[in-house]
Amino acid sequence: MDAYALVLNAGSSSLKFCVFQPPQGARWEVEARGQVEGIGTSARLTVHDASGQKLADERLDSSVRDGRAAMDVLGGWLRSKYQGGRLGDKLGDKLVGVGHRVVHGGPRFSGPIVVTREILAELHELTPLAPLHQPHNLAPIEAIFDRMPEVPQVACFDTGFHRGHAAVASLVPLPRDVCQGGVERYGFHGISYEYISSVLPQIAPEIADARVIVAHLGSGASLCALRNRKSVDTTMSFTAMDGLCMGTRPGALDPGVVLFLFQKLGLSVKEVEEILYKKSGLLGISGISNDMRDLLGRSEPEARLAVDYFVYCAAKEIGAMAAVLGGIDALVFTAGIGENSAEIRRRISEASTWLGIELDEKANAAKGTRISKPQSKVSVWVIPTNEELMIARHTGSLLKLQ
After folding, report:
1. Among 49, 89, 158, 308, which one carries the catalytic annotation?
2. What is the pTM of this model?
3. Digit-coded pLDDT (tens) for 66-113
4. What's the structural domain count of the chain?
5. Residue 356: beta bridge partners?
6. Sequence-ordered strand ranges (E) for 182-313
7. In 3D, which of 349, 342, 391 has the Cα closest to residue 366?
8. DSSP letter assigned to residue 162
9. Is 183 part of a structural domain of the chain?
10. HSE of 135 in the Cβ direction (CA atoms, 13 Å)?
11. CATH assignment of the domain containing 67
12. pLDDT tens digit string along 167-192?
């Protein structure tokens, strides 16, 4: 009987999933990938097989208003004999494990772990550190506990890859008694960075063990400084708001601004949280959109300013990460903006020419893997991330599926 593993990446308005066949050797095979998107508004289920052929594309009714309802939809599709049993029969054979992306592991969870109900309760206590993500990450775990308690589940943490930082890179300079409560620099996007680190020996062996800065640029954005494929420092910190300007989050912010919002403007905690997580960043600057694709196509000065600020912050923080590493040998772009926007890659690279970057504009426009000129002292790369595969690998390792 074939065995299958499910990987879930749940957000506030979408439930992304991948179905993997555990490897007989070292290679995981994707059976299907898709998402339930538009949760709470106009929900839709889309599914494709490994070759990109569409397996499902259907608008869902108005009852799909939360993650549990989305899980019901996904469960129904997995149980069905879609397209005459072409995929559904196989998926119904044996679900041997579910892997989840969980944004915050706090000070205790430094690596992937098989989840128990007790561990799930501890992870809920971390919700104030990642209010945009943590509740949605944990909802599918609860749903599977309730409906399929016999299926083992693995949590993979975005903070985990950064847990080996030196004390000076993890420190938050507040009173010691405050920090003892778990206040430290955790860093995020770790599953993505771990994947990039894992494929460097195959894709770019000449830089695999060098000083590499990876730019994970998407709606959430951060940088990670790698040495010997290990995280040395990263731009995100105690929460996923620090560092670079993001779609709706401000990035680095003077704490005095937050005091001003409370003391001068008289805003409540919820109102300040709403501003910092949902109304700032590219959306706050432009007043138009949090989507880089939209802003690059607009002519309004506010849109141009938002893009300029995004590039400015990224280039500035690349300089800071280079200082941490004592120099830089390579820059890697990944994630939605990093992988797909030649213009943003060009502008950040041009702002970083002082480091020794010479961009090959033709290779950049053609979406090449290496987009710097041969003589460039610092090589520049575009490497697509694959968080789902990284989660599958950890799930298989912990559950001994490989």
Report:
1. 158
2. 0.92
3. 778 888 888 888 877 444 444 444 544 578 899 999 999 998 898 999
4. 2
5. none
6. 211-217, 221-227, 230-234
7. 342
8. G
9. no
10. 9
11. 3.30.420.40
12. 999 999 999 999 988 899 999 999 99
